[in-house]
Amino acid sequence: MTATVLLENVYKLYNNVPVVNDLSFNIEAGEIFALLGPNGAGKSTTIRMLTTLTKPSQGRMEVAGYDVVRQPMLAKRNIGVVLQQISVDGDLSVWENMELHGRLHHIANPERQRLINQWLEYVELVDRRDSLVKTLSGGMKRRLQIARALLHQPQILFLDEPTVGLDPQTRRRLWEIIRDLNKQGMTMLLTTHYMDEVEFLCDAFGSAKPGRIGIMDAGKLISLGTLKQLRSVHGEGLVTKQLSVTEPGNDSSRGWEYLFFPTLEEANNYLNQQPNKTGMMVRPSNLEDIFVELTGRQLN
Ligand SMILES: Nc1ncnc2c1ncn2[C@@H]1O[C@H](COP(=O)(O)OP(=O)(O)OP(=O)(O)O)[C@@H](O)[C@H]1O
Predict the structure, then answer these.
(1) Going by CA atoms, what residue is nearest to atom 5 of ligand 1?
(2) Which segments does the entry list as coiled coil (predicted)?
(3) Which ligand 1 atom is the nearest neighbour of the CA of 45?
(4) 3-state secondary structure of 181
(5) Would you call 178 helix, strand, or coil by DSSP?
(6) CA angle at residue 23 from 178 to 230, to 5 degrees?
(7) DSSP assignment string, 158-175
(8) What are phi and psi of 259, to 5 degrees?
């Protein structure tokens, strides 16, 4: 399969400071890829560069085979973008927002009407077609943004923190939409700082092809792979040890020592050999453990 998103040694500098620092990765057709990282890691800047909203300072970036700096119009035609900020017009109706986007993309009638109807049905907003967007809930607005991003039949969908600020039920509904679109073959890049989001969208359960996760911190990609690959690289078994206040290494930002072992069995063996097991526990490692191990701090 060919890469539909390609980044090669990409940098973005603001005031001479790199906020994206030598970033390289590919996304294959039909793949779902999550960029995970704390606030300020450079995730949104990466999406903004890939979607032609800001230019890289250095490096090569392609989407759908088009260079985002030299062929921005062609790149834009082939991508759908759902940004963090609600970008639909509150003073227009649901239908009018879709209509405007369809016209901007030169989709002629009756195809335009058919596609608007199809995507509004898909995100369950047909019965709100005449409502002013400012009267919709946050989750509905986000679903409308997704429907609008899909209207011109893009090859790749970019989602920047798609569920930020939404309630648990609405988040889950959006996850189902995202996963369903990916199952239908849509290539996707999403950013998030929610571990559960990444685990739901990229994990092997219920998905023949698990998505990959790129962990970003301070502009750099510090780990890359499926959840299974990340666990196998960093260790599938974990011993956690609660540090007492006086113990060396307890810098209060953490309070816990994490010891990774290749397997759960090895973690258990280690624990069994300890004369004093107070405050110690064994469990399978998860994405959050790996993140904390790599960055030395918790997300959220
Ligand atoms: N236009 C800009 N001018 C100067 N600095 C900027 C600009 N845009 C972003 N930055 C800085 O770049 C860094 C990365 O920001 P970015 O928004 O890409 O991070 P992020 O990982 O998406 O974080 P969040 O989860 O908060 O959205 C931050 O330190 C931010 O302050």
Answers:
(1) 14
(2) none
(3) 18
(4) helix
(5) helix
(6) 60
(7) EEESTTTT--HHHHHHHH
(8) -115, 115
Query: What is the per-residue DSSP string for 60-92?
Result: EEEETTEETTT-HHHHHHTEEEE-SS--S-TTS
Query: pLDDT: is 290 or 205 the higher one?
Result: 290
Ligand 1 center to 44 CA (angstroms): 7
pLDDT bracket for residue 253 (50, 70, 90): very low
**How do residues 222-245 score in pLDDT, each as one tens digit?**
999 999 999 999 999 999 988 776
Query: Residue 2 CB: number of other CB atoms within 10 A?
Result: 9
Buried b (16+ CB within 10 A) or exposed e, 35-55: bbbbeebbbbbbbbbbbbebe
Please give the DSSP secondary-structure letter assigned to residue 109. T
Q: What is the pLDDT of residue 299?
A: 60
Q: Return the residue matching tokens 């040890």.
A: 241
Q: What is the pTM of this model?
A: 0.89
90 C-beta neighbours (distance < 10 Å), count = 12
Centre of ligand 1 from the C-alpha of residue 12, in Å: 10
Pairing type for strands 220-225 and 212-217 reads antiparallel
Ligand 1 proximal residues by C-beta, below 6 Å: 14, 19, 37, 39-45, 193
Sketch the domain layout of the chain as residue ranges.
3-232, 236-284
CATH superfamily, domain at 3-232: P-loop containing nucleotide triphosphate hydrolases (3.40.50.300)
39 has a pLDDT exceeding 90:
no
Distances from the Cα of 214 to the Cα of 14, 25, 248, 252, angstroms: 22, 9, 32, 28
Q: Is 296 exposed, middle or buried (0-12, 13-18, 19+ CB in 10 A)?
A: exposed
Closest CA to 31 of 288, 223, 213: 213
Cα(11) to centroid(ligand 1), Å: 13
